[in-house]
Amino acid sequence: MNLAMPSLLAQIPTEMSPGTLQVVMLTSAVLFAVGMIGFLTRRNMILMFLCTELMFQAAAIAMIAFGRMHLDPQGQVFVIFILTVAAAEAALALGLVVLLYRRKPTLDAEAWSELKEC
Amino acid sequence: MLSAVSTIASSTLVALAAPAGGDGAHGSPAGEPFGFQHPIRAAVESTDLSLAQWIVWLPAISAVLCGLYAALGVKNRLPAWTTVAALAGSFVIAVLTLMRLDPTTDQPVVVHLFDWIDLSWSSDAGSATDRWHSLRANFALYLDGLSAYWIIFVTLLGTLIAFYASEYMDEDRGIGYCRFFAGVSIFLFAMTCLVLGENLVMLYLGWEGVGLASYLLIGYYYRKPAAVAAAKKAFIMNRIGDVGLAIGIYLIWLEYGSLQYDVLFDALQGGDAGAGQYDGWAAALIPWCLMLGAFGKSAQLPLYVWLPDAMEGPTPVSALIHAATMVTAGVYLIARTMPLFLLNQADGGHALEVVAWVGGLTALLAATIGMAQYDIKRVMAYSTVSQLGYMFMGLGVLSTFGACYHVLTHAFFKALLFLCCGAIMHGFGGQLDLRKLSGLRRLKGWRIVCWTMFIGGLWLAGFPFSAGFFSKDEILAQAFISPGVGFRALGWIGIVTAGLTAYYTFRVWFRVFTGPTYYKPEEDHGHDDHGHDHDGEFHPHAPGFRIKLVLVLLSIGAIWLAAGYFLSGFWGTQPWIKQAIENSSAGTGLQLFPEGAHPTLFGFDPHLSMYFVSGSFGIVGLGLAWWFHCVNRKSADDLRNWMLSRRWIGWLPKAMERKWYVDEIYIGAIRFPLWITSQALYVFDRIFVDGLMVNGTARLPRFAAEIFRPLYNGVLQGYGASMAGGLALVLAWLVWVWMRGGI
User: Fold this and answer.
1) Which residues does residue B143 pair with via DSSP β-bridges, in sequence order?
2) CB-based contact (8 Å) between B714 and chain A?
């Protein structure tokens, strides 16, 4: 990408070493795995929601890492978007959870399977 | 735009009409004009007789007024008096018209009322003035001997029957009363259109109009399933005939270029009859199509079955249908289009012979059925079918005068008989079974009904010197004179039928009016409950003044008809009616044969010997009825039981009582196959079209969904797992591709 301010570019350190990237990617993968396992094993809706947030952040870390590696700010831009969307989505999701809790005093996701086929 | 359309239309029509200019390939041999012995003169247009239009308009006004009364909720007898006044007015105007017209001259008069269908077009090939480039069917009246004669008795009998109905329908006063008289007015309006119309389109208008009115009136008691079924039957049977008439009219326009009687007759006499664009077969087909229409409307074999059922309507309606209107329309149609039939005969066609034979066979068949029925109205209904058979026989053997005269006499005595039956039905709580009525002669207040019905019976039986005797003999004698396939045999069939007629007529009369007096009301009658007293005993109520007056007037009319015919013979001139018919377009028949050279019957002129032959057959029939049903009633039952117990003859009384199984044959031959076909189509429709095509297509997505449905089990983790699994699969695939060095 053609950047407008080459002087700034000069201040950015050199490319990340593949070893560092590997570590960061591993962190991201572990975070994603933790989130997915949490999502698949927990029944509490708030916890499940938190797990999805974990998976989100795992993806965000991976993007920052790649952006840093290629010296490309697109990764960070994406992450800022992801955070914004995640914030909005958190508000919505928690709101939904509150509403659902008002209808049935439970946080168990199993309780909301009325639309299932047979 | 409009002109473009008309250009296309005209070019098509010109293409159809183009061969008109050529000589008639069909019709008279060698292009010579067809020689009608008695030329039909061209009509003159007259404004002097414009009064005649009120014959048509008065019933129409009355119909509208009766509808208005129904809307206003009139409860008194106003509809009846309106109708009677309108019909009486029509009758008076018809008489005035007749007197001014003098139908014994052969000059037809056309009275133009208004333009109805008046189209003409021109092209390079022809002008807009000739008949091949126009379609004219204006609302105009064609007054000649035939139509003037016909309209007289139609309006007179309509008036009398409406007057009778004003008392007969009293129990239904209110909206039913209005509905009834509106129907009668429509009936008469349609009939006057039919008879007086100047062209075949107007005739068709009236033709369909009487069909509609008969449907409305037969189904008058619309809560009664039998009446509704009878109305539908009448309408549907008539439709079959009407298709024939419609095709006939269409072919006439195609072949002769005009539907106006005047132009048509002129064309027929001019020799350029039959454009011949179908090698003559279309022109040859015309009489057969018209015949089918006439057979449907006039209840001839095989389309007669609607008429006996039509008595489900109120009795005045039966009288109206059987006597003056409706059934006489078929006779009128053939009499009116007689030149076409004569043309067919001159061509070697057999249309007239078929008319005669169908008439003769219908007469015999209906008479045998009438002999074995127990419902007196049904006997009268079959006798109408039988008498109509005589009329068609008369037309077929070229005695149009006999046929038309028989229509007149039959109209009077059959109206009389039906109205007598109506009076009995009215007075005895709907009872019509002649086994449950006897000796009514001695009841107080029934004498007039008794003796007027006796006169009607004598006239129907063709008792010597009655009007029915003369009119029937005219037809029968002509059957022995005219050359045609088996006409002599047909004459004998007619004579035997005359004997049967006398028998069944007087079977009714002797059973009902003579013998020990007893009567029973119909068990479940709802027609006239005031016959019962509080103690539950039944008291008949004798007919009132108006019913009696009509009966007396009709008998006087019937007697006068005979006297008129008889006396005119003494004066050495042709009877007035004969002149009227012979001078109209219908009357060209008898002149086709040389005078004096005709065959004889028992060595005498058939007209002379017929007086004795048919008279004696009638007296024998009457005597048998007297013996079996008055003197020794037990013998009739004995005879029936004896016949039933013998194997070789036992089928006969049964078959006659079951009306020769004609209704059953219709059910077996037409209704059942149609029912089977419809059931098969129904099953096909349900299984193939609905089941496989429509619902099958609709079920396809559902079957597919059936496979995937278990995946949606509502467990959120399950969805998550499948998403993760899917992701894993995609990743594994990517890795696999990468391992193979793809990316």
Assistant:
1) B109
2) yes
Residue B140 phi, psi (nearest 5): -140, 160
* The pLDDT of residue B26: 35
Interface test with B, best of A32, A117, A118 (most B CBs within 10 A): A117
d(CA B433, CA B374): 5
Q: Residue A36: list chain B partners with CB under 8 A.
A: 720, 724
Q: Check if the beta carbon of residue B673 is closer than 8 Å to that of residue B680.
A: no
CA distance to partner chain A, nearest, from residue B708 (Å): 10
Comparing C-alpha atoms, which of B228, B462, B497 is closest to residue B382? B497
The CA-CA-CA angle for residues B16, B263, B145, to 5°, reads 145
pLDDT tens per residue, chain A (118 residues)?
555 555 555 565 666 777 888 999 999 999 999 999 999 898 898 999 999 999 999 999 999 998 888 888 888 899 999 999 999 999 999 999 999 999 888 888 888 877 665 5
pLDDT in tens, B398-434: 888 889 889 999 999 999 999 999 898 888 887 888 8
Query: From B727, which residue of chain A is nearest by alpha-carbon distance?
Result: A36
**A41 and chain B: CB distance < 8 Å anywhere?**
yes
Query: Strand B44-45 and strand B109-120: pairing?
Result: parallel
Q: Which of B496, B314, B233 has the alpha carbon at shortest distance from B390?
A: B496
Helix or strand (DSSP H, E) at B110: strand B109-120
Q: Which ipTM score applies to this complex?
A: 0.76
Burial group, residue A43, by CB count within 10 angstroms (0-12, 13-18, 19+): middle
SS3 B37: coil
Report the distance separating Cα B273 and Cα B287, nearest Å: 14
In the DSSP assignment, the letter for residue B609 is H
CB contact under 8 A, B714 and A39: no
Which chain A residues in 21-40 lie under 8 Å from chain B, judged by CB atoms? 36, 39-40
β partners of residue B518:
B438
CA nearest neighbour of B498 among B349, B619, B317 = B619
Distance from CA of A77 to the nearest CA of B (A): 25
Residue of B nearest to A42 (CA): B717
| Residue linked to tokens 């010109």 | B14
Q: What is the least distance, in Å, from the CA of A9 to any CA of chain B?
A: 31
The residues near B371 (Cβ < 8 Å, ≥ 6 apart) are: B500, B503, B504, B507, B656
Q: What is the distance between the alpha carbons of residues B24 and B275, in angstroms, rounded to a whole number? A: 6
Which residues of B are less than 8 Å from A115 in CB distance?
712, 714
Q: Does B715 touch chain A (CB under 8 A)?
A: yes
Estimate to the nearest angstrom the gap between the alpha carbon of B112 and the chain centroid.
27
Nearest CA in chain A to B716: A109
Q: What angle do CA B113, B117, B118 make, to 5 degrees?
A: 90
Query: By percentage, how much of chain B surpasses pLDDT 90?
Result: 31
Whether B714 and A48 lie within 8 Å, measured CB to CB: no
CA pair distance B662, B103, nearest whole angstrom: 42
Q: Per-domain residue ranges for chain A?
A: 18-105
Asked if the A18-105 domain carries CATH number 1.10.287.3510, the reply is: yes
Pick from A41, A43, A116: which is nearest to B714 by CB?
A116
Instruction: Give me B148's structure tokens.
Output: 């003037």
User: What number of other Cβ atoms are within 10 A of residue B164's Cβ?
Assistant: 30
Per-residue pLDDT, B65: 94
Ranges B6-15, B43-52, B373-382, B490-499: which has the least confidence: B6-15
Compute the distance between CA of residue B645 and CA of residue B655 in angstroms, rounded to an integer: 14
Which of B425, B379, B464, B421 has its CA nearest to residue B551?
B421
**CB neighbours of residue B246 within 10 Å:** 17
A113 to chain B: which residues are within 8 Å by CB? 713-716
